Amino acid sequence: MGESFFREEVILARRRVHGEVILTAPPGIWAGALVFALFMMVLGLILVFGTFTRRERVTGYLSPAGGITRIYAPQPGVVTAFPLTEGMLVARGDLLFTIEGKRYRTAESGDASEDVVKALDRQEGFLSERIDRQVKLMTARTGHYRDLAEKMASEVRALEDQMDQQRHILALVREDHEAARVLVEKGHATRTGLRRLQQQVVAHEQHLKELETEHSAKKINLARNAYEAAQSPALVDDQIAQLKISVEEIRQRIIEMETKRTITIRAPVAGRVSFLQAATGAVVGQHIPLLSLVPEPCELLAELYVPSRATAFIEVGQEVRLFYDPYPFQKYGSFAGHIVEVADSPLSPSEINGVVKSDQPCYRVKVSLDHQHVNAYGVSYPLRPGTALSADIIVDRRPFYEWALDPFYSLKGRMS
Q1: In Å, how far from its chain's centre is CA 6?
Q2: Is the backbone peptide bond immediately before 307 cis, with ω within 30 degrees of 0?
Q3: For residues 295 and 377, is the Cβ–Cβ distance under 8 A?
Q4: In sequence order, what E strands does 24-75 have?
Q5: What backbone phi and psi angles, to 5 degrees, belong to 349?
């Protein structure tokens, strides 16, 4: 029962396959596999060598490298002369404009400033007359002291002569007194004559002392006169100097009054006129610039104001892509520049230039332009100072695999 119904040869014949078995697949499968392999290879290369860049869009404007000189009116008034046009070149010292200050009316002459100038002129005249009188007084005092000194010197010499004569007389009287004393001792003369001679000696000595006292007083007066004669010119000179200072102050006030009536403003530097905001006959104030002077030739820089959060990786030499507002990105593309300066400290929102608006502190970053012009429709247009712009600043750049593994790096940082 365990034997097969067919012979073993029949079974083997049925199992035999003639020829080799070949497994085939459609061509589309091989092409898909090849594409998938290439895709995975490219994706691996991108993950290993590719980088992810995070950018920050900031705003700014173009400004000359040498700065812009803004010209303000020194006082409110009316522009009476304004011989300027936009883009005009001016040299240092050229006339920019003339302003006539406000005038106030009075009953005397109709112009308060003119009345003040006249009053100051009268004060200057009074002070000049006082100076002339002081000079004459100094001359008279000098002559008086000189004459008095000569008179006192003559009196001193006369007293000295009298003193010499008195000393000679006193010596003779003393000799007579000595001779009489000898005769009295010998008994050849009376004591009455001796006492008379002694009285003469005392009288002459007293007279000599009086002459010496008077001589000393005269010499003291002479010295005092010499001192006063030396001090008087200095005192008068001081008074004259004070008067001259007063005169100069009055003249300065006169000049100020004249300058307030008509003020001429000249160019402090050479440059090209721009941002004109005045005209002849316009009423101007002191807080708005009437014009600006841009140095010529003018190299423009881009001044960007970057928020604090985007300054971590900014460095000098870094490339920046610029987008000028007058030249839309969709039509003219972006423009290259490189950072040349990064501020060390931030500016508060109130310190930032009015062209840029920000509600947070920003760092000022200066960017040099690769090109000072824009090519549009085959024509080269020069860039202008004050042009508003935006820019892309690279704030972070790292490989894709780091970006993909960022959660693990963050977790590792928190754990460490």
Answers
A1: 122
A2: no
A3: no
A4: 51-64, 69-71
A5: -55, -30
Determine the residue type at 305. Answer: Y
Parallel, antiparallel or unpaired: strands 335-342 and 319-324: antiparallel
- Written as six digits, the tokens of 303 are 């001044």
CA distances from 172 to 193, 195, 201 (A): 16, 16, 9
User: Which two three-digit tokens encode residue 390?
Assistant: 């935006």
- The token pair at 81 is 């002369």
What three-state secondary structure class fits 21? coil
Tokens at 270, concatenated: 């050479």
**Residue at 349: amino acid letter:** P
Read off the tokens for 203: 């009288």
- Distance separating alpha carbons of residues 180 and 199, to the nearest angstrom: 13
Taking the C-alpha atoms of residue 189 and residue 359, their distance in angstroms, rounded to an integer, is 130
CA neighbor of 369 nearest in space, from 395, 345, 335, 342: 335
pTM: predicted TM-score of the whole model, two decimal places = 0.48
CA dist 202 and 200 (Å) reads 5
Rounded to 5 degrees, φ, ψ at 285 are: -115, -165
Q: φ, ψ for residue 227 (rounded to 5)?
A: -65, -45
User: How many angstroms separate the CA atoms of 260 and 253, rounded?
Assistant: 10
- The 8-class DSSP code of residue 347 comes to B
In the predicted model, residues of the chain with pLDDT beneath 70 are 1-7, 9-27, 47-53, 101-120, 229-236, 254-261, 353-355, 395-398, 400-416
- CA–CA gap between residue 150 and residue 222 (Å, rounded): 9
- C-alpha 292/C-alpha 67 separation (Å) is 10
**CA–CA distance from 208 to each of 152, 159, 224 (Å)?**
20, 10, 24
Tell me the per-residue pLDDT of 147-184, one tens digit each, with 9 for 90 and over: 777 787 888 888 888 888 888 888 888 888 788 777 77
Which residues, at least 6 apart from 390, have a Cβ–Cβ distance to it below 8 Å?
57, 58, 59, 60, 322, 323, 325
Distance (Å, whole) CA 81 – CA 99 = 7
Question: How far apart are the C-alpha atoms of 326 and 313, rounded to whole Å?
Answer: 29
- Taking the C-alpha atoms of residue 186 and residue 191, their distance in angstroms, rounded to an integer, is 11
